[in-house]
Specification:
The chain is built from eight helices and six strands, in the order ααβαββαααβααββ. Strands 1-2-3-4-5-6 form a six-stranded mixed beta sheet, sandwiched between helices. The two termini are 25 Å apart. It is globular and about 45 Å long. β5 and β6 form a beta hairpin. The longest helix has 15 residues. The protein is of the alpha/beta class. 40% of the residues lie in helices and 15% in strands. The protein has one domain.
Amino acid sequence: MAEMAIGYGSEFQLLRYLGHHRQDLNQAIIDQLKIESGEIQWVDYPVNLNRDSMDGEYKGVECFKNSIDIDYQKLQEEWKKFWPQSGNSQNWDGIFTIGNKWYFVEAKAHLDEAYQKCQATSKQSIDQIIKAFEKATGDSVKAEKWFKSDCYQLANRLAFIHFCKENGIKAELVYILFINGYRINTKKNVCDKQKWQELMEEEFKILDLPKKLKEKVGIVYIDCKKGKQ
């Protein structure tokens, strides 16, 4: 999570909706993810006075630390085996729960945010990431493909969701994709839902996602000019 831009961008829009339009946001999530029962509970983030926003972020499995249903110490040890502890672990734009299921949010407001390559340089970290991808995909060839692709962020998020499942935690990745999310630098705006749909389908195709992994990715579209779609 980078420092928040004021007045535009994905983090600003997500916080704007959480603060000023939470009912609309929650209803959009319920409707578009087809959630039949349960109440959305957003997880509060830690304070970090070293950041301009004064908010910190949860990385890796830190969000489970205070969960009464999870043996956090044991989970942390398993996480160390699964994912490199140097560099940046997965961090989330938002986290919410419905009952005993966790939802991890990636918010996007322009297309370029979707494509990232892995920045790991040490052989140990690279080997560990590829092994994690192999566990998530069940395929060593596909794991290499995931690691080398421009869709590394989606790949490592899906690996995290797989880790949760293997450790008895119900979890889903949710993309909240903002339409018309920029009032400044409007050239970055995604102006219609179809553009986002095309991008997500392209990412799924690049990673060659099987059905079982596609089902772990929920997508919610929010038009910042109109509200929920």
